[in-house]
Design brief:
Layout lengths: L5 H12 L33 H8 L5 H8 L3 H10 L6 H22 L2 H16 L6 E3 L3 E2 L4 H16 L5 H27 L7 E3 L16 H4 L4 H16 L7 H16 L12 H22 L9 H10 L44 H9 L3 H9 L6 H6 L15 E3 L4 E5 L8 E5 L13 E6 L2 E4 L25 E3 L21 E8 L2 E7 L1 H5 L5 E11 L3 E21 L8 E5 L2 E5 L3 E9 L4 E6 L10 E23 L6 E7 L2 E8 L2 E8 L6 E4 L1
Antiparallel strand pairs: 1-2, 1-3, 4-5, 5-6, 6-7, 7-8, 9-13, 10-11, 11-12, 12-13, 13-18, 14-15, 15-16, 16-18, 17-18, 19-20, 20-21, 21-22
Helix pairs in contact: 1-8, 4-6, 5-6, 5-7, 7-8, 7-10, 8-10, 8-11, 10-11, 10-12, 14-15
């Protein structure tokens, strides 16, 4: 079907939506029927015959906490909020809370018939429908453009129709469908149309009537191009597709909506690597992949059209597994602090800790692993659904099948170089296991200026750290935590590699680093990555900036940094200390330093062709933002710098082993014993890619 122009679409949908006599959809009575065949199922995600399995899931240990939180929600507080506190010009917080109430309580009612949850969800539905606009962005200064709030509201209300069934009156059903048809789908269509045809966009802007802080409003001039390859394309894609399938055959624009949604999903699927890797970070992976699967599942159930293989779903679950990095301790909870909309406030739970490259904060909801296990009959996905991170949404309850086969990961997955050049090496998946993560690769939305940076976790602690909760706006002090200086990386005369100024948001830079060599063997992994072009963009005198990492499992890590400059300048190596919970500290003397955490310590020395001096410093942030210490090793001004960092992790209170470093011209040798591990590594730093021998 030919896709209409935006003008034709807006005119026709606005005129017809208000008068269309919808044939209302109902969920069959509980336990009354067998599952419908693909293509004929009435439920968007589940049918009455699925309810016994879903009810059993609520008692499964994996879901007990989630279900208790859902059923035990403070409905009195929700009711007070809905009746007295909703601001119709506040979409970021208030509309999101209305949607969350609908999503939660409608599902609770579908599962257990709780009348109190029915009452609060119908009130929340009315509040959502009362919002004059369903998002806080405009196209051409007039038309609402849906990115998150319109998308989320559309999906939540469509599911509420399924969950509430005959508890809704015909008038309520008509109002919900009308809201989706007039406020939800058109807004999502507008954003996706603009991403597909950016040359036809009049101009995207923040809605001046919304109370989103002026200080955090960035330029949206290039957003139709920028967002086309980010998670903010997938959410309206899923919403538009679900709206189309909900109203299939009953709304004159439903076919056009579905065409655009499927086109958008297919285009976005190429953002994933063939191995399932994803560039925006694992937190955004979860949000994005869940919505890709959500649309595919509803499309299959409603029309029998199978787009469930658009991307490598089993591979992308392995991608998420690679990022898991549980640690010990109590974590850090910023939720009690004053809210800053430009700084994430999620609690950092050590059990859900991750390799947090980019703006990732905690592991995402792994509900999509349950869907992948069932849909693709993938036993490793079932293991992830059972054991990795947490189920944080009702989708896990819908999709999880305890009878699905499960298989734990093998050691073959302990060393991974992804198609996007991220490298992660580990000894296992428990808190006591070691993880080394190396950030090579290219630009991405939500990235940091972190090329060739390193995360090192051992004995339950982050020892080389990547900052958490960096600011999303250049106007907040925590924006500094996005920069190279806040990573375990290289600075040249105090300057990091290229990064943007934030005036357009958290979009991608131009910075690349590229893996030159990657090898693994029994108990070790090595990788060399060249980041020269990233530094050259802002420092033309940079002729070579590369890093070679040697991981001797479980707890010896060597870093060889080579910097060649056209003019003599000093080079700094930084090693970030995790102190968000106020339990991290560092000391330094001469060319050595130590990092201490409650459960582990790291001892290191830094060696160069000229003497290196180490010192403990802290980032220049206001006291309210906490203390963020780091160790800096300085190599004095020169045109050639070759620096070798030798670090070894130990259990807290345990004396580290003695490792000796010798050098003859470009040949380096590290020998000794650490915690029973014999170390004998030779490095020839003269070839284009250093030659490494592990005895």
């Amino acid at each position: 079907m030919k896709t209409p122009t935006r003008r034709t679409f807006l005119k026709s949908s606005a005129a017809l939506a208000a008068t269309l006599p919808f044939a209302h959809l109902r969920l069959p009575a509980a336990d009354a029927a067998a599952p419908a065949a693909p293509g004929t199922g009435k439920g968007l995600l589940f049918d009455a015959a699925d309810l016994p399995r879903i009810r059993a899931n609520t008692k499964h240990p994996r879901f007990v906490k989630l279900w208790a939180e859902m059923t035990g929600a403070d409905l009195a507080a929700d009711t007070d909020f809905l009746q007295h506190k909703v601001r119709f010009n506040n979409h970021v917080v208030d509309m999101a809370r209305c949607r969350q109430i609908v999503e939660r309580s409608a599902f609770v009612y579908a599962v257990n018939g709780d009348a109190a949850h029915l009452a609060v969800t119908t009130l929340a539905i009315r509040k959502l429908l009362d919002y004059p606009k369903w998002d806080f962005f405009l196209e051409g200064g007039k038309q609402t453009m849906g990115l998150q709030r319109a998308s989320e509201a559309t999906i939540a209300l469509a599911q509420a129709l399924d969950c509430l069934g005959s508890a809704l009156t015909p008038a309520e059903i008509a109002a919900i469908e009308d809201g989706i048809a007039r406020k939800g789908a058109p807004a999502c269509f507008t954003s996706l149309y603009g991403m597909k045809y950016p040359e036809r966009v009049k101009g995207w802007t923040f809605d001046p009537e919304d109370d989103y802080p002026q200080a955090f409003r960035v330029s949206m001039a290039r957003w139709p191009l920028i967002l086309n390859s980010t998670n903010l394309k997938v959410i309206p894609t899923a919403a538009l597709g679900i709206a189309a399938l909900l109203l299939h055959g009953r709304h004159p624009q439903a076919a056009a909506w579905l065409d655009l949604a499927r086109s958008s999903a297919k285009a976005f699927s190429t953002m994933y690597g063939a191995d399932g890797s994803y560039d925006e970070g694992v937190s955004y992976w979860g949000y994005t992949t869940l919505h890709m699967a959500l649309f595919a599942e509803v499309l299959w159930r409603r029309l029998g059209v199978d787009d469930r293989g658009l991307l490598n779903y089993p591979g992308t679950i392995r991608y998420a597994l690679a990022f898991t990095m549980p640690t010990k301790g109590e974590g850090f909870d910023p939720t009690g602090q004053p809210r800053n909309l430009a700084v994430p406030t999620l609690k950092v739970d050590p059990a859900d800790d991750i390799v947090n490259f980019s703006d990732s904060l905690t592991h995402s909801d792994v509900a999509v692993a349950a869907w992948t296990a069932r849909t693709h009959r993938d036993p490793l996905s079932q293991h992830v659904a059972l054991h990795v991170s947490a189920m944080k949404s009702h989708y896990g309850l819908i999709w999880f099948d305890e009878g699905a086969a499960t298989t734990p990961p093998t050691s073959a997955l302990h060393d991974i170089r992804m198609s996007n050049d991220l490298v992660i090496s580990r000894t296992g998946y428990a808190a006591a296991d070691s993880v080394v993560a190396f950030r090579s690769g290219g630009p991405a939305n939500h990235e940091h200026a972190d090329r060739n940076s390193v995360i090192f976790k051992a004995h339950g602690e982050r020892l080389f750290h990547d900052p958490l909760r960096a600011g999303y706006s250049y106007n907040t002090p925590r924006w500094k935590l996005r920069l190279t200086a806040a990573h375990t990386a290289v600075l040249i005369n105090g300057q990091g590699h290229q990064y943007h100024d934030g005036k357009e948001g958290t979009n991608a830079s131009w910075a690349w680093s590229r893996v030159q060599a990657y090898q693994t063997g029994p108990g070790w992994m090595t990788v060399t990555s060249d980041a020269t072009e990233s530094y050259e963009l802002v420092l033309p005198e940079a002729k070579r900036v590369d890093r070679t990492l040697i991981f001797l499992k479980p707890d010896v890590l060597l870093l060889l940094d080579r910097v060649t400059l056209a003019t003599a300048q000093p080079v700094q190596l930084r090693y970030q200390v995790y102190n968000d919970d106020s339990h991290g500290q560092a000391t330094a003397s001469d060319n050595g330093f130590e990092i201490e955490r409650p459960f582990a310590r790291l001892a290191a020395t830094v060696h160069g062709t000229t003497p290196v001096a180490c010192a403990v410093l802290r980032h220049d942030l206001p006291e309210a933002e906490g203390v963020h210490p780091f160790v800096e090793a300085v190599s004095p001004a020169a045109t050639e710098h070759t620096l070798l960092t030798v670090s070894a992790a130990s259990v807290a209170g345990e004396k580290p082993g003695a490792l000796t470093v010798t050098r003859l011209a470009s040949l380096w040798r590290v020998t000794g014993t650490h915690r029973g591990l014999k170390v004998d590594v030779s490095i020839d730093a003269s070839p284009a890619v250093p030659s490494i021998t592990i005895a």
